[in-house]
Amino acid sequence: MFHVNKNSENAEFVQLLSGIISLITAGIALFSFYAENGRGFNFWLILSLFLSIFVLILSVIKYWNRANKWYDSTASSVHEFNHRLRDELYTLKLLSIQNKLTRETLLANVQKTGEFAVNLLGELLSEITRTRVSVHIKTFPVDTSTPNSYRTLCICAKTDPNRKTIKDHSIFENTHYLRIVSGQDSCFFSENLSQTIKDYEKAGQKFLISAEHWEKRFKSILVVPIRIEARLKGIEDDKKYDYLGFVCCDSMEKSAFKLKDKEAHLNLVKSFADGLYVYLDDIKGYLNSL
Question: pLDDT digits over 115-146, tens only?
Answer without folding.
Answer: 999 999 999 999 999 899 999 999 987 655 55
